[in-house]
Write a sequence for this structure.
């Protein structure tokens, strides 16, 4: 962004297995200046995940404290775990006039829309249902019952794509990352940069 541009909160959501984390990692690699919020979660780390990088891994007591002290912009339970966006770093980023990117689930995206109607909601969609099923099965990190639950949730999330401002199809990670950064840095509709 250049001086005078309007800060924008952009929310990326989509079904489990669509590649949100992969696209965000590509955004970070190709555009290191883009700030991505790190969510808190009660989920156990997957192999290779680092606390404070992919997520802030917290226990239930700490998550309850964040809720009680209004320390989360949004939070949701998904597949038996809770996820939430710490509000303080996000407020600091937007107050500095810089765009912010959140990677969150559908429930959280709906909460952000309710709290901040100007937020831009971007839905990351798979190229096809078969591709999404293949990606979820390929993870190998979850038992079949959890995968089945995720597929049922994924179908419901795909049905909600119409609630989002923009749909980006993740058929090519680099292209999806470029499209997301373009959306993130574009001026908000109805706002004139520099005002």
């Amino acid at each position: 962004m250049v001086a005078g541009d309007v800060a924008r909160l952009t929310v990326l959501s989509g079904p489990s297995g669509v590649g949100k984390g992969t696209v965000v990692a590509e955004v970070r690699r190709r555009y290191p200046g883009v700030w991505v919020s790190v969510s808190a979660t009660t989920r156990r780390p997957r192999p290779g995940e680092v606390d404070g990088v992919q997520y802030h891994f917290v226990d239930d007591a700490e998550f309850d404290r964040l809720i009680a002290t209004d320390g989360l912009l949004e939070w949701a339970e998904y597949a038996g775990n809770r996820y939430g966006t710490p509000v303080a770093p996000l407020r600091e980023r937007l107050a500095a006039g810089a765009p912010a990117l959140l990677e969150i689930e559908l429930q959280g995206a709906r909460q952000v829309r309710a709290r901040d109607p100007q937020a831009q909601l971007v839905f990351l969609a798979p190229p096809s249902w078969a591709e999404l099923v293949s990606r979820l099965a390929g993870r190998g990190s979850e038992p079949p019952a959890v995968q089945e639950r995720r597929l049922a949730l994924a179908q419901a999330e795909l049905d909600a794509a119409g609630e989002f401002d923009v749909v980006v199809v993740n058929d090519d990670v680099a292209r999806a990352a470029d499209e997301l950064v373009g959306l993130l840095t574009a001026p908000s509709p109805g706002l004139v940069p520099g005002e």
